[in-house]
Structure formats: structure tokens, C-alpha cells
From TrEMBL:
The keyword Signal applies. Keywords: Signal. This is Extracellular solute-binding protein. InterPro entries: Bact_solute-bd_prot1, SBP. The lineage of its organism: Bacteria, Bacillati, Actinomycetota, Actinomycetes, Streptosporangiales. It comes from Microbispora oryzae. The keyword Signal applies. Residues 1-20 form the signal peptide. SUPFAM superfamilies: Periplasmic binding protein-like II.
Length: 468
């Protein structure tokens, strides 16, 4: 199949599947599925953008320097851009907020199709990078100063923004996963944080037998969580190399994937976990009222929950966090949910200057500190991850627990990264459909995995991919 057919397919996917990312994205898997900026949505400042530097949200003071245009939606982006411009004497950044997540992706897709109108640098969730890369909309920045900043991020963080040997973004924030739990429920039923998923099920059964609440929740609308737990057990959903854009490996029904789906399906069948979609008023009300003993989520969750009203009033000080339970305690695997990057677009006037801006934005101490102070984002820059102020932080949501030191930083450091598909949104939607069927009891986990494999492979072939 010709490459143009694949590009067309990716364009349609980007347009049709661009669900907002940094508000709770019930279909996607990035930092918007309740991700890193879920608690900090910002409305578009205007619809200007692209390579037009005449209508910036920020004020550029060094007017004699070349300007790089930038789209991004973090709530403190004004501070981030001002800090970069203040400290840089080679290039200035003109920032515009054209919307967050899907709103921005729609505008970017329009610019890609038109061949103009895109910014020099754009904020993209890591799992969306392949969708735009296959359309040749992003630049490999490996030859534009990568070696100078490589040591600022872990290998896992770089892998999430890389395809093959090329690098298509600068990591900014991520979502190392963990288990948030209610201390009052654990104390009441004499439960210690489970270290394995087998122990998790045992604890859930103990609480149920004693007449306690649900131990957790299996929401069909968070497919990225299921994917992460399958990867934790050893699954490798996709293999993809941009050098062979017409070919992709898809393995969604291997034994590890089936085992994880069967595990969660059985928990739901036994009534040990709930079946409520997450990021809904009903779910949040359940969290506030102690309906769930645990919440399997990512490092951005404290910010999201606080913004949603959790951890206040009668449930203040009742939450703690523990490492994510493991499938094999002898071979622990850390996984991630969410995360964003700054990418250079193929419409950049000067890719080298654009890369300099992408590398430098959100890399200074003041911006990083402002970003994590209230757990709004979980930074991936090692200057922050190794900063004693961040590591030793006593997190108010967790009643003063040093959550970063005990849980999130070790998880981030051990994360190895993963390979995303160029049609990730279709996969997330298909996973949601199958998990929903499994929750309702119409299929087993293994059957859901087989149906998912058939669905996604069929779709990939329809779009012109050769499936390995």
C-alpha cells in the first residue's frame, strides 16, 4: 500500500479521534485521560497561531531576536515562556493557546492538511506523536542539540517520544503509576498495601467478606490503564519503525494481555471492584464517600483529585499512596499513564532554533518548581526529579507523606518506555468497547483480547498497513 494512503488514514484518525487530552479524556490514554494537567484546563486565548508571530499571548521584550511560534496549554505557560525569553539571547518564543488536547490537535491537523498554519513548536501528548509523525508533520530533532540535553531525561522518557532511532519530542511531564488508597479503610479492615496483584485480590476479598466497600474500580473509559497493566505483565502491543511506515506489529491477544483482562474481569464478576466510568461526578462522589478503597492511577492524580474536591472536608488526610502492585514481585515493572512533550513541526521556519526552544521551555528551575509545587504535573526533567525539594516534598493530599521519595520518583526512574501506534485513538476506542463487554459479562477477558486483536488488525489492514 502506498505511503500516501497511510498518511490519509492517520489524518482522518487525528481529526476524528482528537478527544481533549488534558481534561479527563474518556477515550484516550494520554495525560488528558485525567492526565497531568487534568486539574488545570485553560481556555484558548485566541485562534491566532501558526507561524504568525504578530499576535502572541505573551510580550516579547527582546525584539531584535528571531522568534519561534509555540502552541501549548499548560496553566502556567505564561510564566514558562517568559522565563525562557528572559534567559535566552538567541531566540524568543511567541506563545498562543489555541486550546488544549483535542482542540489543539484539530487545528494542527487542519494546518497539516493545508500545508501552512502550524506553529514552529507544539505541545503533544506522547501517545499522539506517531499519528502526526506518519504524516511527516514532525521533525526528528536528534541532530539539533539532542546530545547536549540527552542526560536531562531518563531513557524511558526519551523512548516515549521516539520512533525507531528518531526523536520527535522533548519529554516534559509523565504519569508513573501507583496505588492510592484510603488509610481509614485499610486500618478498619487491617489491610496492608498489597505488593502483588494476587495480594490485591486477597485484600479485596477480605474487605468484601467483612461487609466493606469495593476495593477499586474497573472503568471501561480508561483503556490506557489496562494497556499499562498488560505491559507491566510483559505484553508488547505494538512494534513500529518509521523506516517501514507501511508495516506494524500488533499483538493484543498474547497470554499476558489475556491474563490481565481475565484478572480484572474476574474481580468485577466477583463484585470486588466497581464498574463505574472514571472522571465522572458519580465516580468522584464515590471516591469522596469512601466507596472505593483504592485508586490505580498516576502521579498527576493528586492534582486532579484535589481539583475535583477530593481530600477536603471530612476526608481530609485519609489518603496515602503505595507502589503499584506487581504481577511478579521478583521482576518488578513500572508503567506510565499520560505525559506530554514539545515537538518541532515540519512547518518550522528554522528547525534548529525551534528545537532550541523545545529543549529550553520548561527546563529552568523556576518553571519546573512552579509546575510541580501543587502536584499539577509530574516533571520528567532530572533536574526536578533529583531536586531534594521535590523528592522530599511532604504532599498535603497524602497527609504529609513523602510520596515522591517513596513511590513516584522510583517508579519514574525505573520506567523503560513503550512504543505507541500511529492509530492509537482507534485502539483506545476498541479497547473501551471490549472492556465494557467484559465488565457486563458478555465475554471473558481472553475473548475480549481475541476480539480486540481481530478488530485492530482488521482496521490496520483497511488503512493500508501490513500487519506482522
Amino acid at each position: 500500500m502506498k505511503r500516501n494512503s497511510l498518511i490519509t488514514a492517520a489524518a482522518l484518525l487525528a481529526a476524528a479521534g482528537a478527544v481533549a487530552a488534558c481534561a479527563p479524556d474518556v477515550g484516550g490514554g494520554g495525560s488528558t485521560a485525567g492526565g497531568s494537567t487534568a486539574s488545570a484546563s485553560a481556555a484558548p486565548a485566541n485562534n491566532a497561531g501558526g507561524n504568525n508571530a504578530s499576535n502572541c499571548t505573551n510580550t516579547i521584550s527582546k525584539k531584535n531576536l528571531p522568534v519561534v511560534t509555540f502552541w501549548g496549554w499548560y496553566p502556567n505557560m505564561q510564566l514558562v515562556v517568559d522565563n525562557f525569553n528572559k534567559q535566552n539571547n538567541e531566540v524568543q518564543v511567541c506563545w498562543t493557546n489555541v486550546g488544549q488536547g483535542g482542540d489543539e490537535y484539530d487545528k494542527f491537523q487542519t494546518a497539516i492538511s493545508a500545508g501552512s498554519g502550524a506553529p514552529d513548536v507544539i505541545m503533544i501528548e506522547a501517545d499522539r506523536i506517531p499519528t502526526f509523525q506518519i504524516q511527516k508533520a514532525l521533525v526528528d530533532i536528534k541532530n539539533y542539540g539532542f546530545d547536549a540535553v540527552k542526560a536531562n531525561y531518563s531513557d524511558g522518557a526519551w523512548k516515549d517520544v521516539s520512533i525507531g532511532g528518531a526523536v520527535y519530542g522533548v519529554p516534559v511531564d509523565g504519569g508513573p503509576m501507583a496505588m492510592i488508597y484510603r488509610k481509614d479503610i485499610f486500618d478498619k479492615y487491617k489491610i496492608t498495601p498489597p505488593k502483588t496483584w494476587a495480594e490485591y485480590e486477597q485484600a479485596a476479598q477480605k474487605v468484601k467478606d467483612a461487609g466493606g466497600p469495593l476495593f477499586g474500580d474497573l472503568g471501561a473509559n480508561v483503556p490506557a490503564v489496562m494497556m499499562a497493566l498488560q505491559i507491566q505483565k510483559g505484553a508488547n502491543p505494538y512494534t513500529y519503525d518509521p523506516a517501514r511506515p507501511e508495516s506494524i506489529g500488533i499483538k493484543l491477544n498474547d497470554q499476558a494481555s489475556k491474563d490481565v483482562l481475565d484478572y480484572w474481569g474476574n474481580l468485577a464478576k466477583k463484585g470486588l471492584v466497581g464498574k463505574q466510568d472514571q472522571f465522572t461526578p458519580e465516580y468522584i462522589a464515590g471516591v469522596v464517600n469512601g466507596k472505593y478503597a483504592t485508586y490505580i492511577s498516576a502521579a498527576w492524580a493528586p492534582g486532579y483529585l484535589t481539583g475535583a474536591g477530593v481530600g477536603k472536608g471530612k476526608d481530609t488526610g485519609k489518603f496515602a499512596v503505595a507502589p503499584l502492585p506487581q504481577w511478579d514481585s521478583a521482576n518488578p515493572v513500572q508503567v506510565n499513564w499520560g505525559g506530554s512533550a514539545f515537538s518541532v513541526t515540519s512547518q518550522a521556519k528554522n528547525p534548529e532554533l525551534a528545537a532550541k526552544a523545545a529543549y529550553g521551555l520548561y527546563a529552568d528551575e523556576e518553571s519546573l518548581t512552579d509546575g510541580w509545587t501543587n502536584q499539577i504535573i509530574f516533571p520528567l526533567n532530572l533536574k526536578a526529579l533529583n531536586d531534594p525539594k521535590f523528592v522530599d516534598l511532604k504532599v498535603a493530599f497524602f497527609d504529609g507523606q513523602q510520596a515522591n521519595k517513596e513511590v513516584y520518583v522510583p517508579a519514574a526512574n525505573a520506567y523503560k518506555g513503550m512504543t505507541y501506534a500511529p492509530f492509537g485513538q482507534y485502539y483506545y476506542d476498541a479497547m473501551t468497547k471490549q472492556v465494557s463487554a467484559m465488565i457486563q459479562g458478555s465475554v471473558t477477558g481472553a475473548e475480549a483480547a481475541d476480539r480486540l486483536q481481530e478488530d485492530v488488525v482488521g482496521y490496520a489492514k483497511e488503512q493500508g498497513f501490513t500487519v506482522q
